[in-house]
Design a protein that fits this description.
A hairpin with a 7-residue loop joins strand 6 and strand 7. The strands form 4 sheets. This protein has a 5-stranded mixed sheet, with helices on one face. Strands 11-10-9-12-13 form a 5-stranded mixed sheet, covered by helices on one side. A 4-stranded antiparallel sheet has the order 14-15-17-16, with helices on one face. It contains 8 helices and 17 strands. The chain has about 400 residues and is of the alpha+beta class. Helices cover about 30% and strands about 25% of the residues.
Length: about 400
């Protein structure tokens, strides 16, 4: 897709050079053409493509800030105060743009607000489809490590990090390389230039030459800081669209507020009705619940617990009654021995034995005559000893 690149020559944002660029086919060997301020309208109208504005590198201060771990959004939103001591100007007059905020240190680019406002004014005046506003540094390709060098406008672009770099004259280049050496350990410099361009002669360092025609500019699929952030996030085309739909958005917002208010009123009424129902339930169940139970308690859970207690109590009463009836009946048959007693559900069982089978059968009949549902199971008859299980089933009281 074609892009229109506009690079201004200084902070006046008047004279500029421009080039068209297709990110799918073109390389970093851009065909720049110079123009003055009066030609801006003609260049923009003859090349109606999405625009990338390039700010002169000498107008942009690039640095980075080390933040504490898990820094919140409030720290990031006030990050300009972290580098206030590095600036020689009032921070209120400066615009701060962040690189990748997930990195630490966080890369930051600082540019005067007046420059950003001028860019936005140009975009509005000439109806530009503004995609990005970037520092000149990111015209230099980035090999991934070390130091990269290429020609910028009236100077050398020296890139020594994903986001960091500077611009200097050819005469100042050796001194700048020595300064960079303090931050980055390198021995080789990658020089990106035209095939006809002679690489600069730099002592102490190995210069690896790379043709611009074989690579893409640094702003394509590479790390960069887009200056179009915060107050300057939207281009003029989007701002115009926002103004057009401003009253429609306000009307829709008012409808949403009214609808939300009505929904809140209805919800409040339902909550009052629910509270009344809960109070009725509490008044109904209060006699069956513990004395300290409040209306806000989980009445269902407490009621289930109470029912289980009543059922357990009833089972206990049935067990005692059956045991009493059996004890009364057995008092007439002292020869009947009890080896085991079991209770499960509403059944009470006795493992009994006697040398006289007649005593076992008589005990069964005595229990039955007392009104208990009883039967004899697993009867084992032997000449010397008979045994069995006498099972009593609970009545209506269980």
């Amino acid at each position: 897709m074609l892009r229109l690149l506009i690079q201004f020559t200084d902070d006046e944002l008047a004279d500029f050079r421009w080039a068209t660029f297709d990110e799918t086919t073109d390389s970093a060997a851009l065909d720049w053409q110079s123009a003055d301020a009066d030609e801006f309208s003609a260049v923009a109208s003859q090349n109606p493509y999405p625009v990338i504005i390039i700010i002169p590198q000498q107008c942009v201060y690039i640095t980075e800030v080390e933040l504490p771990e898990k820094a919140g959004r409030q720290v990031l939103s006030a990050i300009e105060y972290q580098i206030e001591d590095q600036l020689a100007q009032d921070i209120e007059s400066q615009h701060f743009a962040l690189g990748d905020s997930s990195e630490n240190p966080v890369p930051i680019a600082v540019v005067e607000r007046s420059i950003m406002e001028h860019c936005m004014a140009l975009a509005r005046s000439y109806d530009l489809r503004l995609m990005q506003i970037i520092p000149e540094l990111y015209l230099c390709p980035w090999p991934g490590d070390g130091v990269a060098l290429t020609e910028g406008y009236a100077g050398c672009l020296l890139r020594y990090g994903r986001y960091r770099g500077l611009k200097c004259t050819a005469q100042a280049l050796p001194a700048m390389l020595e300064l960079v050496k303090r931050d980055v350990d390198y021995d080789t410099i990658t020089f990106y230039g035209l095939e006809s361009e002679t690489a600069p002669s730099i002592d102490k360092y190995t210069l690896h030459q790379q043709a611009l025609s074989s690579t893409q500019p640094g702003f394509i699929d590479g790390p960069l800081i887009d200056l179009q952030q915060r107050d300057y996030q939207l281009s003029s085309a989007w701002q115009g669209l926002a103004k057009t739909w401003k009253w429609v958005a306000l009307f829709i917002g008012a409808l949403l507020v009214i609808g939300g208010y009505n929904k809140a009123i209805a919800l409040h009424g339902l909550e009052d009705e629910l509270a009344g129902i809960k109070q009725q339930q509490y008044n109904l169940l209060k006699p069956y619940l513990p004395a300290n139970t409040s209306p806000d308690a989980d009445l269902k859970k407490l009621l289930i617990k109470r029912m289980k207690q009543l059922q357990a109590s009833e089972r206990g009463q049935g067990f005692l009654k059956l045991l009493l009836e059996f004890t009364r009946a057995r008092s007439s048959f002292p020869n009947v021995k009890i080896s085991r007693i079991g209770y499960q559900g509403d059944l009470l069982s006795f493992e009994i034995s006697s040398s006289q089978l007649n005593d076992i059968e008589a005990l069964l009949q005595t229990v039955i005559k007392q009104g208990v549902n009883a039967k004899l199971e697993s009867l084992n008859i032997k000449p010397e000893q008979s045994s069995g299980r006498l099972v009593l089933r609970g009545g209506n009281d269980v």
